[in-house]
Specification:
The complex is a heterotrimer of chains A (324), B (504) and C (153). In chain A, 41% of the residues lie in helices and 20% in strands. Chain A is α/β, with parallel strands linked by helices and 324 residues long. Chain C is built from 5 helices and no strands. Chain C has helices at residues 4-28, 36-58, 69-92, 95-110, 118-142. Classes of the chains: A alpha/beta (324), B mainly alpha (504), C mainly alpha (153).
Chain lengths: 324, 504, 153
């Protein structure tokens, strides 16, 4: 027994020394890497982050497992604030980003981050916002809904996952493009709570993630009136027209892009290493299979393209949110 | 009776092994401070990647049921509830342990959990189609009133003084508002950097219960090691069983309350135990004994928090809406395997759905068996000398609160709240109403704000919050509950208020 | 020894002061929308705290044991260990080393065996190492929690 304890103590000590001595970037990563998700366990972002990182432990990718940490609160502000101000830029703490959420929040102010606080690694998915109504609703198209909204200004309630997240942006754009006055109702508890409000009839319509709406439609609870993207989603919702097709000038600003990022100041060698291996990890066959099974559209974009996308969003969102 | 034909799947070797492993692991994880059922289930998701959908769900279901019950072990022996669901168990359970009835309290808690749990799953099996509609009936206004109903329980919960109970609740409500507000994103009461993320409920729970325990242990000084050590004498299981059957009233109150609270999406199982405890006391002829180590308190609380498990899955399995954080994680577990809960589940994957539900039924029974065994080990835990126990609980509290979100800020908050609570407890305040305030604050606020926004767009707040049968029913319950609290408060302190008459 | 009534006044006035600050903040901070609920709560909070303060001042409702000097004296070393552990050791030396030191310190401080007893020291070290091994196994290996690594780990 004593011998066992001694062996254990020595091995623990030995591992300490190797850990603290290692500063070299080329051996990165030498221990499990964590990914911070600013939404609760079970939400769409958390669920997808868990899938796309599940093969990280394979030798050809990181060779170390990725652990998900949830820091939910205030539409993501809590987690990203922590990430911008408290996370060590050593490559062992990554975070999931949600564009346009964090960019819109930083433009609106009151947070400790902006696009310049983070370095993107790669994008794994794009989840467009869609307009949903409950299955018994009188509305069958965007026109029905917006005509009703114009006849009853401010009376049409529309749920979404929070303020200054993709759903809110979509609602603002729809309002702007149609001239109708909509009452946007942010829910606490993310897309699931917003969807519940639609199905239960607490609100007249809702904006939700394509993946969640697809699932809700599969179980026969909602109708999907339109997709807030440039093109139809051929994979899951080929029959649902985009808002543009229905005569509304709504682009893809509200599409929820999800990917991984590191804090500013992370060594360049580590960023390069991640930027090279992470997109390959996302492209893994098993990942693709499980993402598809869950109804989550994938869109793998490399670091340089994501940087451009962030900059473009920054510009378009500044414009859109100017009047608020 | 369709479910009976799928029992075979539960007893396949791999499935059974997973069920046993999941149950035992769940009990241990549940007893670890900081690991709530939600976290335990989330931690297991990666394991399910390597299993078939049915097997994965069996593992998750077993872990869910047993973590809820496992939290009772530390609640009873150390007065440290493993999860918010076990707070009410600690109130009487720990007193029982201190009086030398630790094994009895553990037996009763597991038997009651098992009973409540089985009924809960049976409700899930037989009443799902009817209840699904019911679960949707609760809109923001109703949830707001539900939360207010919970607040009215605060004053009478585990308090020697009515005012101090309410005041503790108010402190909890205030603490719950620290941090970014969830809807507007405005910063509120952030005095220190550690508070930016708000007060995490699990970290707060650990601090409020575990740290005062550590301080109480060391307050006796260094030479008192064995003076008040808890003894856990052997208890015959048949005696415990008989005792349970003698307490049908609290057992059924717990089961019914737990099932109802579990059904309502958004309220969650966190308050099922506390509400059931309160109801059982109101209906009990021995209501003065509650809080002094009365078995009815343990039975009501534990039957409620496991009865909640089955019904909490009704909205998930039928409408694909997760009604609680844990259900949300289970949803992820289903989706990863390409299974969409909802009508699709029972039509196209009956094998998966029914095997999952059946495994929860078998899991409840396994949980009781393993739980009873832990009662035997508990004797050993209780024999640990006080200084080691104090040091161990402190280190566990620090690790537990850190690992919730891997944040040092949570550890600071945990310790600060804990030290504060120790001093407050010595002046007659108590932790249970404070935690209840902390849990209910955000539910009440979010639904109030959301309800008022909907009301503004439609008919105005008065009509929205105060019309409709369900609203009026809940308001009536709130009024009754307040009236009851005032009356029993007067009955307890007849000297302070001699006037009778209007009891609002 | 402070009298029981004045001792009860200390928490009562502290809570009253907190409630006053909360109320003041709730009614002055912007945006008003986000402080609607805090305002409602703070009114109740202030009222109850005031009531409680009055009762304490009148010497009513003295429930609880208070904090006798003996208790303060007993908890003072342990409480200091806790604070030093959480605020300095855990981050500075690393979570595991800090925890081991705090564990050993609390154990030693409150162990009835005399400080000079060698056998007791051996037991203390063995128990500490064993306990920390279990903790390491549970949190680092099983749950893969990444703890702050200070000077050691």
């Amino acid at each position: 027994m004593k011998k066992l304890i001694a062996t254990l103590a020595i091995s623990v000590l030995a591992s300490t020394i190797t850990w603290s001595a290692a500063g070299a970037d080329e051996n990165y990563p030498e221990r499990p890497v964590s990914v911070m998700v600013s939404y609760g366990a079970g939400g769409a972002t958390d669920f997808q982050a868990r899938i796309v990182t599940m093969v990280a432990g394979n030798e050809e990718y990181l060779g170390q497992p990725i652990v998900i940490i949830n820091k939910p609160g205030a539409g993501g502000r809590v987690g990203w604030n922590w990430f911008a101000s408290n996370a060590d830029p050593d490559g062992y703490t990554l975070a999931a980003y949600n564009v346009p959420h964090f960019i819109a929040q930083s433009i609106k102010g009151g947070v400790k981050y902006s696009v310049d606080s983070f370095e993107p690694i790669a994008n794994w998915g794009s989840d467009p916002a869609v307009v949903v109504v409950s299955k018994d609703s009188q509305f069958n198209s965007m026109k029905d809904l917006l005509d009703h909204a114009k006849a009853n200004p401010g009376k049409v309630t529309m749920s979404g996952a929070g303020l200054f997240v993709g759903h809110h942006i979509a609602a603002l754009q729809i309002g702007k493009a149609s001239g109708a006055k909509l009452a946007y109702i942010p829910t606490k508890g993310g897309g699931a709570a917003a969807m519940k409000a639609v199905i239960a009839g607490d609100v007249m319509a809702g904006i939700n993630n394509l993946s969640d709406a697809y699932r809700a439609r599969q179980s026969g609870n909602v109708k999907i009136l339109g997709v807030a993207d440039l093109e139809r989603n051929t994979e899951f919702l080929p029959d649902v027209p985009t808002l543009k097709e229905q005569g509304l000038d709504v682009d893809n600003s509200s599409v929820n892009f999800r990917g991984l990022m590191v804090p500013k100041g992370t060594p360049k060698a580590i960023i390069d290493k991640l930027a090279a291996s992470v997109p390959e990890m996302f492209a893994n066959k098993r990942v693709a299979k499980q993402m598809n099974a869950g109804g989550s559209p994938m869109k793998i974009i490399g670091r340089d393209e994501v940087k451009k996308m962030w900059a473009a969003r920054q510009a378009s969102l500044t414009e859109l949110l100017k009047g608020l | 009776m369709e479910f009976l034909s799928y029992f075979g799947g539960v007893f396949e070797p791999v499935a059974l092994l997973l069920l046993i492993g999941g149950t035992m692991g769940g009990l241990i994880l549940g007893a670890t401070p900081g690991l709530s059922p939600t976290m335990a289930v989330a931690l297991l998701i990666p394991f399910t990647f390597h299993l078939s959908p049915t097997q994965g769900l069996i593992l998750l279901g077993a872990a869910y049921t047993s973590t809820v019950a496992g939290g009772a072990v530390t609640a009873i022996l150390l007065k440290i509830p493993g999860a918010p669901a076990n707070i009410a168990t600690a109130l009487d359970g720990n007193k029982m342990a201190k009086q030398g009835h630790g094994a009895r309290a553990l037996h009763l808690s597991f038997l009651a959990s098992g009973f409540g749990g089985v009924i809960g799953v049976l409700i899930l099996i037989f009443l799902t189609p009817i209840l699904a509609v019911w679960a949707l009936a609760f809109g923001p206004s109703h949830l707001f009133w539900m939360a207010i109903l919970g607040v009215t329980v605060i004053g009478s919960l585990d308090s020697k003084s009515f005012v101090k109970g309410l005041l503790s609740g108010c402190i909890g409500l205030w603490l719950s508002m620290i941090g970014y507000d969830d809807i507007q994103g405005a910063q509120r009461f952030i005095f220190a950097d550690a508070l930016t993320g708000g007060i995490n409920i699990i970290a707060a729970l650990i601090g409020l219960f575990a740290i005062p325990q550590v301080l109480e242990m060391i307050a006796k000084g260094r030479f008192a090691a064995s003076v008040e050590a808890i003894t856990v004498p052997k208890q015959r299981i048949m005696d415990s069983f008989r005792e349970l059957t003698q307490n049908i009233r609290s057992l059924s109150i717990g089961t019914v309350v737990g099932s109802i609270v579990g059904l309502i999406p958004g309220v969650g199982g966190q308050i099922a135990g506390l509400v059931a405890y309160d109801q059982a006391r109101k209906f009990s002829p021995h209501r003065d004994k509650f809080g002094t180590g009365h078995p009815e308190g343990v039975i009501a609380a534990e039957s409620a928090n496991n009865a909640m498990v089955g019904p909490s899955l009704v909205p998930l399995l039928t409408l694909s809406i997760p009604g609680s954080p844990t259900a949300a994680v289970l949803l992820g577990g289903l989706l990863i395997n390409g299974i969409f809960p909802g009508s699709d589940l029972f039509e196209n994957h009956p094998q998966v759905a029914w095997t999952f539900i059946n495994s929860m039924l078998v899991g409840q029974i396994l949980m009781v068996i393993f739980g009873i065994y832990t009662a035997a080990w508990a004797a050993r835990i209780a024999r640990v000398p006080t200084p080691i126990m104090a040091a161990a609980v402190l280190v566990l509290a620090v690790f537990g609160s850190y690992s919730v979100q891997q944040s040092m800020g949570d550890v600071y908050v945990m310790l600060a709240l804990g030290v504060g609570m120790f001093f407050l407890e010595r002046f007659g305040f108590s932790a249970a109403p404070l935690v209840l305030g902390l849990i209910l604050g955000p539910i009440a606020e979010a639904n109030f704000i959301q309800g008022s926004m909907i009301a503004d767009a439609q008919s105005g707040p008065w009509q929205y919050f105060l019309t409709g049968t369900l609203n009026l029913f809940l308001v009536a319950l709130v009024v009754l509950s307040v009236a009851y609290s005032f009356r029993s408060n007067k009955a307890r302190n007849p000297a302070t208020k001699p006037s009778r008459g209007v009891a609002t | 020894m402070i009298s029981s009534r004045s001792q009860h006044l200390i928490p009562a006035s502290a809570i009253f002061a907190v409630s006053a600050v909360v109320a003041w903040l709730s009614f002055t901070q912007e945006p008003a929308d986000a402080f609607l609920f805090p305002r409602v709560i703070s009114v109740f909070f202030l009222g109850l705290a005031g009531w409680n303060f009055t009762r304490a001042a009148l010497g009513l409702a003295r429930v609880g044991d208070g904090v006798p000097r003996r208790v303060l004296k007993n908890i003072a070393p342990g409480l200091s260990v806790m604070l030093i552990f959480v605020f300095f050791l855990a981050g500075g030396l690393g979570f595991y080393v800090g925890s081991a030191l705090a564990f050993a310190a609390i154990y030693t401080l409150y162990d009835p065996a005399p400080v000079s007893d060698l056998r007791a020291w051996r037991k203390r070290i063995v128990v500490t190492v064993l306990f920390m091994t279990v903790i390491y196994g549970l949190f680092a290996l099983l749950l893969k929690v990444q703890t702050p690594r200070g000077f050691f780990f």
